[in-house]
Design a protein that fits this description.
47% helix, 11% strand, DNA polymerase, domain 1, alpha/beta
Length: 393
């Protein structure tokens, strides 16, 4: 197993990779004690069976620069192959301002090819590469040096089997003419907006049970402060204060340090110093928010007038269409989207692009009462319904 620890050696491998159609990529990182991921290892492989066709790159090695790799990630002549790429791409975007193009995500491709929802790498290794995978090193500390032989073997397997998986899925997608489907799915992964975290939007991740504008205004300001504090100090947001403490603060609205000291859920470190001052300022800002600027909660199921019978029929239709097309259900439509359709909403992804052809057209006709569902053996068929007497123009 080759471990690259110098910039020159990395540049040599990246130059070699430019002579191939694709390179497989994976990373190992730590995030338990930081806001941003700490990159600890990069794994790379090109087609071939030679020992130097798959390498480990040690970004913690003294003096090593990843600029040659960044250049390869930007080279649009070489496909960059990942599995479940989102966290890997976030690292490269945040640290180096690069999003690899062209990109191929084998998890996305596997969903398009009917391997199920968010299929894991181990499953694809077993089903496509026909190989076992030792996952015992999965949760080890990747920042410690030296790496053990078991760690290296585990890490390298994440890119060597990926070559076979990529070639198999890419061929299946070409054969079925679904390249556009995959490209449509990858648009989210290749958009910088996916990796930009805006503190003013952090409140949307906090689960609340109220639609009170004043309460949500305080939640928004507390979440904004927590996000900014965590980002600036590169610590996990829960190290500032957790969601349950945030909701308690939004409810009790302490006005002084003495009030803050009565909190049941707030960490001791947050009851004094800059965190405490930030909390009190955030609460004041939330309470001072004019009603016209209150946050608007997203429409949950309970706020939509969902026709439950229609929602159930849409789920049956989705299952049938998913099985017929050989595509994972969640890739076509989420449960929330089905509820939106059943409430009369039409601004959903399931009614656009390839999803509309596979599912959306019949879903609309089902919602409008123009078609029904019939069980024939083990299959569900879409049947045309006769218009009601007197209908039409």
């Amino acid at each position: 197993m080759i471990t690259i620890t110098t910039t020159d050696a990395l540049a040599d491998f990246c130059e070699k990779a430019r002579g191939h159609e694709y390179v497989t990529v994976d990373t190992e990182f730590l995030r338990e004690r930081t806001y941003y991921s700490r990159l600890c290892l990069v794994q790379l492989a090109v087609p071939g069976e030679a020992p130097d066709d798959a390498v480990l790159v040690d970004p913690l090695a003294e003096g090593l620069s990843l600029e040659p790799l960044v250049g390869l990630l930007r080279d649009e002549r070489v496909v960059k192959v990942f599995h479940a790429a989102r966290q890997d791409l976030e690292i490269f975007f945040v640290e180096y301002g690069v999003i690899p193009r062209p990109l191929f995500d084998t998890q996305v491709a596997a969903m398009v090819c009917g391997f199920g929802d968010q299929v894991g790498y181990e499953t694809l290794v077993r089903k496509i590469a026909r190989a076992p995978l030792d996952k015992t090193s999965r949760f080890t500390d990747w920042s410690r040096r030296p790496l053990s032989e078991a760690q290296k073997a585990y890490a390298l397997a994440d890119v060597t089997h990926l070559r076979t998986i990529y070639e198999t899925l890419a061929e299946q997608i070409r054969r079925t003419g679904r390249q556009d489907w995959v490209e449509e799915e990858l648009q989210v992964l290749t958009s910088p907006e996916t990796y930009i975290i805006r503190p003013e939007d952090a409140w949307k991740r906090v689960k609340t049970r109220t639609s009170s504008g004043k309460f949500l205004a305080v939640v928004r300001e507390l979440a904004r402060f927590r996000e900014e504090y965590a980002q600036n100090r590169n610590i996990p947001r829960n190290r500032v204060f957790k969601d349950d403490a945030l909701l308690e603060l939004a409810s009790t609205r302490p006005a002084t340090l003495q009030d803050l000291g009565r909190s049941r859920l707030l960490l001791r470190e947050a009851r004094k110093g800059p965190i405490a001052e930030g909390i009190l300022e955030a609460i004041r800002a939330g309470l001072a928010c004019p009603p016209e600027d209150y946050p608007r909660p997203s429409n949950g199921r309970e706020q939509m007038q969902v026709n439950p019978a229609l929602a159930d029929l849409l789920r049956v239709l989705l299952k049938a269409k998913s099985e017929s097309a050989g595509v994972a259900q969640k890739l076509i439509a989420s449960a929330a989207e089905l509820d939106m359709l059943a409430s009369g909403r039409r601004d959903v992804p399931a009614l656009r692009g390839w999803r509309r052809k596979v599912f959306g057209e019949d879903a609309l006709r089902l919602c409008e009462g123009r078609v029904g569902l019939a069980l024939r053996g083990r299959n569900v068929d879409v049947i045309e319904l006769e218009p009601a007497e007197g209908a039409g123009g």
